[in-house]
Each structure stands twice: as C-alpha cells, then as structure tokens.
Amino acid sequence: MSEAPIRLEREALVVRLHVQPGAKRSQWAGCHGGALKLRVAAPAVEGKANEALVRFLAEFCGVPRSAIEILQGEASRTKRVRIATPDPQAVAARLATIASPALSD
C-alpha cells in the first residue's frame, strides 16, 4: 500500500499532487496514483503552471502564497508541496474531503 497523499508535520503539511496543466479551469479532480489530482488553468510553460498551482492552493487552504513551497517536482506533473499553516489538521481535513470519494473506490 502506498503512502497517504497528505502527511502532517509540525506547523505544516506535505501533500503529494498530480498536476494536469492546461485545463479549462483550476479545480480538484480526485486522486491519481496515490496523489491528489489538481487541474490548473495554465500551460506548463515558463513556470506558469507552478504559479497557478501555488495561487490555487493558497486560496483553497486559506494561507498566503509564501506559505506554499514546491519541495519536489518543479518540472514534473508529480509534485510534493509543503503548506505552512498554524492549523495543519484543519487544512489536512479540508484536503481529505478531496481525496475521500476517490480513495473509497
């Protein structure tokens, strides 16, 4: 069994993502390969998809953009992202609602 897509840390959480650039709009799309799947409405050109990813996550998680750090996968669809927050459990619970329907399949 693979590792969970959301890992809690002190004052942060690390999320495994599968990012699909060039979508019509930025939105969650369930899970893919043990990661949360996110479609972003920006092309994978000159870092635009990563910028859209950070902007979307910051808004969804209610944190400033500076609290989002791409740890791994800057040039890949598969990414590990760290989200700094004073309440990582609340953000993890919100993200888990994205994963729940797909994980129960």
From TrEMBL:
Domain of life where this protein originates: Bacteria
Gene3D superfamilies (alphabetical): YggU-like
InterPro entries cross-referenced by the UniProt entry: DUF167, YggU-like_sf
UniProt-listed NCBIfam families: DUF167 family protein (TIGR00251)
Family the entry assigns: Belongs to the UPF0235 family.
Protein name (Swiss-Prot/TrEMBL): UPF0235 protein GV368_08485
Organism encoding this protein: Tepidiphilus baoligensis
